[in-house]
């Protein structure tokens, strides 16, 4: 396969983020395969990607039922004040009426007797099936029950079982609308309708919906395996003593967390020293065991930046200079995999060499790696209307963009997109605005700790004034998309 990203021009000039995304998309399109699937218990499904079409085997709800505790009745059998007919003995327009209660329909214990006739009602609890002959539920708060002997009068709250000869007085009859407080069978999901399609990310809501269909297990795509390692002689594993000139390995941990959050199986290959031979040996090995390989550090132009040369021996690679900050240098390419086992689905494995500065590692992951993973893991962007779900570009898998108002003046270098880490706060007039999290260096990882969004200051814009509109990439309430 010829990779357009290895067009020699790209080594010369700075790519925009959009250009880099489209080149990446083209490269990955050539290797797209439907991932293999497996069946899992529903409890294991959250965070996985659905691999089958789900057609509803039933109506949800399965039966027409009450949305309130109260009584079920046929609205047409009620006296109608709107018709102007006198409802009381004195000829006044009364707003109450009395019906006889013939029984109870309880959630899990539906009424199995005869249908309701005119002038009759039935006690009913929320979720209980509506008895035949009823189409409307009046809530308990509008009711007063009268026992056959005229004793035990009361609002009836807490009373479940009806007794023989019981009657109920309804207040506010004129406001009762046909079908009120009733949930129709199939009003959420109709029997035989398509509920989900392959590619659906199984969110808490999605597994709830699957459970509501009675499904105990479901087909999901096998998770992708991603191999990661950090590079650099100074990079030290947490738990070890930090040597002079050392720095603890933050990137591997933030990357593992980002990957796991996407349901990815991680092959953690640890830390590699700045040694070309060991980096290329590790890459060769990783390419046979994983669906993608990600490193951090060593992609710039320093003497110890060996990732690029090590990669040249293992595949087809390019160093991109991307007009963004943080994250200007990024290596991308395809590693040759000599499959050592039948698990490997391709003889080419995408590779990302992310920049070593910890914020640059996370920001480039979010811009490029995350969309690539979502694409390769078979996710489909599903929308209520099919037209908006159709176009598949990598950009659609970036964090969602929102327009907010800048709460302070933001400065950037005009020639590249700047991703400031932002927090959404209320200004002194109670309006929602976005502010930076403070110092913005690409080694200031605590700026990501505070970030709820990335403020995108576009190339060509050196200053954005307070009060001006600004686009942000929303990272979600948990700090990741
Ligand atoms: N002459 C130039 N120097 C640099 C350029 C440039 O264009 N010309 N680009 C700068 C930018 S921007 C970045 S980002 C970095 C990226 O360089 P590398 O990917 O080669 O990263 P390193 O040099 O290995 O490390 C950069 C920085 O990050 C620390 N680091 C590395 N790995 C980890 C880790 N796993 N956990 C925590 N911190 C890590 C490392 O110690 C360095 O401080 O290059 C600039 N230089
Ligand atoms: O852009 Mo580098 O990625 O600033 O730290």
Automatic annotation (TrEMBL):
Cofactor(s) for this UniProt protein: Mg(2+)
Which reaction does this chain catalyze?
adenylyl-molybdopterin + molybdate = Mo-molybdopterin + AMP + H(+)
Specify the MoaB/Mog domain's residue ranges.
227-375
Q: Which EC class, in a word?
A: transferase
Q: Which UniProt keywords apply?
A: Magnesium, Metal-binding, Molybdenum, Molybdenum cofactor biosynthesis, Transferase
Record-linked PROSITE patterns: MOCF_BIOSYNTHESIS_2
**Entry function:** Catalyzes the insertion of molybdate into adenylated molybdopterin with the concomitant release of AMP.
Per the similarity annotation, which family is this? Belongs to the MoeA family.
Q: Which protein are we looking at?
A: Molybdopterin molybdenumtransferase
- Organism equals Cobetia amphilecti
């Amino acid at each position: 396969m010829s990779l357009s990203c290895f067009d020699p021009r790209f080594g010369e000039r700075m790519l925009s983020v959009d250009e880099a995304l489209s080149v990446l998309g083209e490269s990955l399109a050539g290797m797209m395969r439907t991932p293999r699937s497996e069946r899992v218990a529903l409890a294991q499904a959250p965070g996985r990607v659905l691999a089958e079409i789900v057609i509803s085997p039933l109506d949800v709800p399965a039966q027409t039922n009450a949305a309130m505790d109260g009584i079920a009745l046929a609205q047409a059998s009620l006296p109608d004040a709107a018709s102007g007919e006198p409802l009381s003995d004195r000829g006044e327009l009364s707003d109450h009426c009395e019906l006889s209660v013939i029984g109870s329909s309880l959630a899990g214990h539906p009424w199995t007797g005869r249908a309701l006739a005119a002038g009759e009602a039935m006690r009913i609890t929320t979720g209980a099936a509506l008895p035949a002959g009823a189409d409307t539920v009046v809530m308990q708060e509008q009711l007063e029950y009268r026992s056959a002997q005229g004793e035990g009068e009361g609002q009836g709250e807490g009373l479940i079982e009806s007794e023989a000869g019981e009657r109920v007085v309804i207040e506010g009859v004129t406001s009762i609308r046909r079908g009120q407080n009733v949930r129709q069978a199939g009003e959420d999901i109709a029997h035989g309708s398509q509920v989900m399609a392959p590619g659906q990310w199984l969110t808490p809501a999605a597994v709830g919906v699957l459970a509501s269909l009675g499904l105990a297990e479901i087909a999901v795509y096998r998770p992708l395996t991603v191999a990661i390692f950090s590079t650099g002689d100074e990079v030290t594993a947490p738990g070890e003593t930090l040597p002079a000139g050392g720095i603890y390995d933050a990137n591997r941990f933030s990357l593992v967390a980002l990957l796991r959050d996407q349901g990815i199986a991680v092959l953690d290959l640890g830390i590699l020293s700045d040694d070309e031979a060991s980096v290329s040996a590790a890459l060769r090995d990783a390419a046979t065991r994983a669906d993608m390989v990600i490193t951090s550090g060593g992609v710039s132009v320093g003497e110890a930046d060996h990732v690029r040369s090590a990669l040249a021996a293992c595949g087809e690679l390019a160093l991109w200079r991307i007009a963004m900050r943080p994250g200007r240098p990024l290596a991308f390419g395809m590693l040759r995999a000599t499959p050592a086992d039948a698990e490997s689905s391709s003889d080419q494995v995408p590779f990302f060499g992310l920049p070593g500065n910890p914020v640059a590692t996370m920001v480039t992951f979010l811009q490029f790696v995350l969309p690539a993973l979502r694409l390769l893991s078979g996710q489909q962007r599903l929308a209520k209307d099919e037209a908006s779900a159709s176009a598949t570009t990598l950009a659609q898998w970036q964090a969602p963009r929102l327009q907010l108002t800048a709460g302070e003046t933001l400065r950037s270098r005009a020639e590249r997109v700047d991703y400031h880490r932002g927090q959404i706060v209320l200004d002194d007039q109670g309006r929602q605005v976005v502010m930076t999290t403070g110092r913005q260096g690409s080694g200031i990882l605590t700026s990501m700790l505070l970030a709820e969004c990335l403020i995108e200051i576009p190339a060509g814009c050196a200053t954005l004034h307070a009060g001006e509109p600004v686009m942000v990439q929303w990272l979600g309430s948990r700090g990741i998309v």
